[in-house]
Each structure stands twice: as C-alpha cells, then as structure tokens.
C-alpha cells in the first residue's frame, strides 16, 4: 500500500512498530520521497527502513522526542527533531493540514468487546487516530495492559490489523547514580515534604531520589509524571505512595513509561496506574491543581541569567523539550509546589578537560528549554538555589555559589563584564 510521497508515523515509545517496519524496509529500493515520523521509539537499533534507505536522500526521518536511537540516526544526517511542547502533539496531529497517510502502532490483543489496549503510551495516539488517512495496528501479546484514560482503541478506529511477532518490551536499566547525583538528591530531599506529588525524569538522579525517599521519613506521596519509571514501583512497594491527592485520587498518572520488566509487570492490569493522553497529563491547568507538586528534571547547562538548556550539546540534539517547561510552570503554580532543574557542576569534554556546566551565557547551538522567567530551583552537588523573584545580580550570585569552585572567579569576572553583577550589589540587600 505504501506509495511514493507518503507520510508514515511509526508510533511512540513501546508502541513503535517492528514487523511493519521490516516489511516496508524490503520495499525501500523501489520507493521515493517518503517521510517517517516517530516519538522516542523504544528500540535498540535504528528502524529497518532507515538502514535500508541509507543511500536515499529523498527518504527522511523525524522524531518528536529524542532518545538514543534518534540520536544515532541524527548523527548519520537523516533524522530531524520536531520542536514542540510534548502536550501539543495531539492537537498538532489532529489539526495539521498535512495529514499522515499511515499511522502504525503496536497494541495489545483485542478483547471480546473489540478493544485493543494501547499499552503504556497513550500520549499522542488519539490525535493521530483522528487525523491519519489509514490506521494500522500491529498486535503484540507482550504489551502490558495499561489501564487509564482513553487507553482502549476500538476496532472501528482501525483499518488494518497485523499480528506481530510479539517482540518483548525493550528494557531501560536503571543507571547507577554518580557521587554528584547522590549529593544533588540529598539537597532536594531536604526540601521535600510529606504529601508531595512527584514528577521524576529519567536516569540515575531520579532513581537515586527514589531510593533515598524509600529510606526516609517522608511519606504519603503521589505520582503524576510524563514518564513512569522503576523509581515509582520502589516507592509504592515501600509504602511511600498512597495517591492521597485531590486530582486522580489513588492513581499514579503518566503518559508513557520506560524501565525494566519490574515496571512493566507493575503496570500490567494494575488499576493504581493510570496512563492518559499527554494533553491531560502535562497540561499546566491540571498540574496547578495538585498541591505540593514536585518536579525533578535534569538539564545540560545553565547560564548566569538563569536560562536552562536541557536538550542540546552545541548543535547536536540530545533530547526533546518534552514536558519540562510545563512541569516547571505547573509546579510553581501548585500550592506548595517546587521544580528542580539539576546538573552536576562540571563535565569532562572530548579533550579530557574539565568544564563548567554553569556558564556566563549559553553557547551557540544551545537551546533554551526553560527561560529565565520560569526557572525555580537549580541544583548542583554544591547546593540548591531558588531563582524566583531574584534580580539579575542576585540570581547570578546564587548560581555562582553552586558552580564548581575552580570556575567561580572566572564566572564573577564575566558577570561583571556583562553588567549583571557587581561587588557593590551585595550592599544593596
């Protein structure tokens, strides 16, 4: 069915197709001017269509959120990022004048009522189902049955069904926390309260925070996050998560997941877990209704104005905007809420040199994921500082105080040159 000039969406996260990708790849030599889309595809290797089309510049790929596979394809020059707020995707797909010709996604087996379970990635599914000219599901018996909001796709919305090879869910092992991340987690833990609702990002830091919380006296927690990870399972099993919040009481709300088999088994047919569309989960107007919402995310660089880059290294796309800005804004609007943007104070560059992640100004190519007007707490291993309501000189001084000591004098000198900090400003308090 695929023809020249078609636009094809391969799905999001664990919903990205496998067998359909392999089938189309066999026809790639005879096809031209195709566009393939996906979002944070959970797979270990690039799409087979990408591999089969390496010598065809007229076949292109784009992703609405970057992961390891997307970065690998981008480094080869034929995968581009689609900048947007993650929560905007359903509206974007539904109202875009350039429709998808085909939307393909993996789903769980159909039940006796004609419903396919979408699996733990409802996210942007409905925007694509409503707008694509043709919808094809690839049935995977290995997909956990994820309960939640709009988590079932009825056969009346489907044009074709493919029985897949039941590829197991890709596991994303927990990354051990570094010494710096353990110190960062300790600073955050001091600012958390009983009754908080947690949004944790991916990587060693959130897992470390989860472990520390399991061992702490903090309790009566809830979960509401863009991505569900193993940390929530550990917190639930430790009796820390009660779900005692006003919005979606008793539920851990998320829009997609990434973790190990422990997480996928926890999700399967579990009414505590609520997978919902991203325009609900990440909506600022919903987040601000959750008291004590705590948002914890990683970032790559912060400059002395308080601008935060969380998605690029130079001109290289590392991640996507995702919902970071939504949670930074939503947590601040939440009664008693806080958002934390976290980074080790330094990194070792390709020349083996130590360089600061707190910079006078973001360098060329760096993307401002969170503007200075929205940044709340910034955390390194040297402390957590609150930038809200602070003048340019005050926030500059605070950021320098959590930079690595080797770079503080240079930062002070540059701040003076930029006119945003003066020694005499200290006496204006």
How is this structure best described in words?
There is one protein chain. With 429 residues, the chain is of the alpha/beta class. It has two domains: 157 residues, Glutaconate Coenzyme A-transferase (3-Layer(aba) Sandwich), CATH 3.40.1080.10; 250 residues, Acetyl-CoA hydrolase/transferase C-terminal domain (Glutaconate Coenzyme A-transferase, 3-Layer(aba) Sandwich), CATH 3.40.1080.20. The protein is built from 14 helices and 26 strands. Strands 4-3-2-1-5-7-9 form a seven-stranded parallel β-sheet, with helices on both faces. Strands 11-10-16-21-25-26 form a six-stranded mixed β-sheet, sandwiched between helices. A three-stranded mixed β-sheet has the order 18-17-24, with no helix packed on it. A hairpin with a 2-residue loop joins β25 and β26. It is globular.
Task: Assess the beta-strand content as a share of residues.
Answer: 15-25%
Percent helix range: 25-40%
CATH class category of the largest domain: Alpha Beta
Point out poorly predicted stretches.
none
> What's the structural domain tally?
2
Mean pLDDT: 95
Largest sheet: 7 strands, parallel
The CATH homologous superfamily of the largest domain is named Acetyl-CoA hydrolase/transferase C-terminal domain
Q: Helical segment tally?
A: 14
Helix-strand category: alpha/beta
Multimeric organization? single chain
Count of beta strands = 26
End-to-end C-alpha gap: 70 Å
**In angstroms, what is the radius of gyration?**
22 Å
CATH architectural group of the largest domain? 3-Layer(aba) Sandwich
The backbone outline, from C-alpha atoms, is globular
Question: Remind me, CATH topology of the largest domain?
Answer: Glutaconate Coenzyme A-transferase
Order of the strands making up the biggest sheet: 4-3-2-1-5-7-9
